[in-house]
Amino acid sequence: MKTKRVTIKDIAELAGVSKATASLVLNGRGKELRVAQETRERVLAIAREQHYQPSIHARSLRDNRSHTIGLVVPEITNYGFAVFSHELETLCRGSRRAAAYLLHRRKPRPGERGGQ
């Protein structure tokens, strides 16, 4: 069974602060915008305890970048492509990126055999 993802809203409620304050602290801007040291420490401690992980989708909206690596392959049954795809997925997860896959079979040109 999948567990519910911890959100900034959850952290804010547990810390007794607003979502905006929790967001500032979790994005490293708390000190700059004069959030009290005690509040920053409380928010960060709760985030650690709750195993908070920022949403890649929220990060994409903030940065105006997709943080997605695309892979286009001609077939998915080829062992080499399968291994490469698996390794790409592993690397993406480790670097907080997303992987997107596209299967593209080129149509043969007149006179060609198959999709070679």
From TrEMBL:
Keywords recorded for this protein, A-Z: DNA-binding, Transcription, Transcription regulation
Pfam family, one: LacI
Protein encoded by which gene: fruR_2
Domain (HTH lacI-type): residue spans on this chain: 6-63
Entry-linked CDD domains: HTH_LacI
The UniProt record lists the keyword Transcription regulation: yes
InterPro entries according to UniProt: HTH_LacI, Lambda_DNA-bd_dom_sf
UniProt source species: Klebsiella pneumoniae
Protein name, as recorded: Putative LacI family regulatory protein
